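Minutes, structural biology subgroup

Action item carried over from last meeting: produce the structure token record for Glycoside hydrolase family 172 protein (Pseudokineococcus basanitobsidens). EB confirmed the sequence was re-checked against the source entry. Recorded below for completeness.
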Amino acid sequence: MNPLDLMATLRPDARTRSASPENPAGEPGGGGGATDGTGAAAARDLGRGWKVSPSVEVAPGATHPLLEATGSGVVQHLWVTTHPRHWRELVLRMHWDGDPAPAVEVPLGDFFGQGWGEFAQLSSQVVAANPHGGLNSYWRMPFRRGARITLDNLGADAAVVYYQVTWSEEEVGEHEGYLHAQWRRDHPLERGRTHVLLDGVEGAGHYVGTYLAWGVNSSGWWGEGEVKFYLDDDDDLASVCGTGTEDYFGGAWNFDVPGQGYTTYSTPYLGLHQVLRPDGLYRSQQRFGMYRWHLPDPVRFRSALRVDVQALGWRSGGRYLPLADDIASTAFLYLDRTSTSRPSAPGVDEMEVL
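Output recorded by EB:
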């Protein structure tokens, strides 16, 4: 349904709930009642109800629940902020309907298109990253019996985290899928191999989004590779095959505006929102952040899905050059089940930006 239509649609069966450090359980009439917390000293002259507990401190090795909901509902908005140095140390996990296996298991920054530990404005339909590190998700996240969202701190230092999760208690439609997101990284990619975004996914569903944090380890243009979707019974050849990396993200001709070079853009459904250039001293390699949300054009499958991207540049004689780049991907999809095949949980060394 169009979001504008939802504004005028009354839902007497639904009720909005919201969890934050000021109301961890999202209880009705339970917001702002803390007498102790990270803001207690600042509110000492004002007392209860005056921003006493606006954030939490997640200790090294600790897991903090952002949401623990029971019954049927839909997570509508997730906002979180913490210092950028923690974006590749905190792992965001989401479990649906009591499944012990997470449907979402992604470094916090990458879930919001911020894979390099440096802020980049991202203005899109379902993800917005705003100054300076306000991370917003509007992915629709239905659940039928319960939802659990957590942050795991794999870093060596405590992380101060502010957050708010808003959901609606409501019935979920029979054909609504569960949101999944998976993270993978090749650092570096083995030459002559493709970077895999998804593999072994079983069930019926549709693919809805890609975020790539791409670090280039060679000179020249790096984005000749194609993005491919292997649907259902596809084997060696894919059903959906693009024409190049920048083409898949809605750009063209190397993202290179004559006289300007790599040029960033951020639109509702796709963008090259981040370009990090060498500084001539300590910073090496060029690094890029790109996203595409398949909202008007979901990639639908009935039984299985595999997705990969080639890494290709140019070499002498007009030949393609397989690249050994640093590629991290986050793939988003909706599926008819609460868990599926997924990679091993990311470790702090695996996530580290080097």
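Discussion: Residues 1-176 form a domain with the Jelly Rolls fold (CATH 2.60.120.1390).
Next step: EB to file the record with the rest of the batch.
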